[in-house]
Amino acid sequence: YDLIPPVDILEHNDNFVVTVTVPGVKEKKDIDIEYHKERNQIVISGEISSSYTSETKDKVKVQERSSGKFSRVITLPDYPGIDADNIKADYSSGVLTMTIPKLKPSTEGNNAVHKIQISSKDSWND
Questions:
Q1: pTM above threshold 0.85
Q2: What is the mean predicted confidence (pLDDT) over 109-114?
Q3: Strands 95-101, 88-92: parallel, antiparallel or unpaired by DSSP?
Q4: Count of alpha carbons within 13 Å of 78, Cβ hemisphere only?
Q5: What is the pLDDT of residues 61-80, one digit of tens each?
């Protein structure tokens, strides 16, 4: 992976709020979020497309904006555990925000991987 996006993690009484800055991602479908229960990790990956084409790349004189594949792994505390079925994710204006509800640890198996869907503030029904 070419890029490691910056992350903020806030812990509240009932949940964690994770904010990931990924400017340049055009659509939420270009971001993949998974929760890996066995490692208690959120894995965020995707790609920021280059705005240059094969025809224009020779004309670039300065390029400071990043593009390429990105990945970030966030390990959450084991206690009190999280409610993976109720993780919510929103992507808007280059910022991915996840709300991760806490719950008490259970004796359930640790091999599950949950896919997390991303909504848009503009349209919660996407």
A1: no
A2: 67
A3: antiparallel
A4: 4
A5: 787 677 889 999 999 988 88
Phi, psi dihedrals of residue 32, rounded to the nearest 5° = -115, 130
- β-pair partners for 97: 19, 90
Residues 82, 92: Cα–Cα separation, whole Å: 24
Instruction: Extract the tokens encoding 56.
Output: 């224009």
Q: Rounded CA gap, 118 and 44, in Å? A: 12
CA atoms within 13 A on the CB side of 71: 6
3-state secondary structure of 43: strand
Which amino acid, residue 63? Answer: Q
Mention every residue, 6+ apart, whose C-beta is less than 8 A from residue 12: none
Q: Which residues contact 72 (CB under 8 A, 6 or more apart)?
A: 4, 5, 7, 20, 43, 44, 45
Tokens 């009190």, residue located: 80
Q: How far apart are CA 37 and CA 84, in angstroms?
A: 8
DSSP 94: T
Q: Is the pLDDT of residue 126 over 50?
A: no
Lookup: tokens for 114: 């949950």
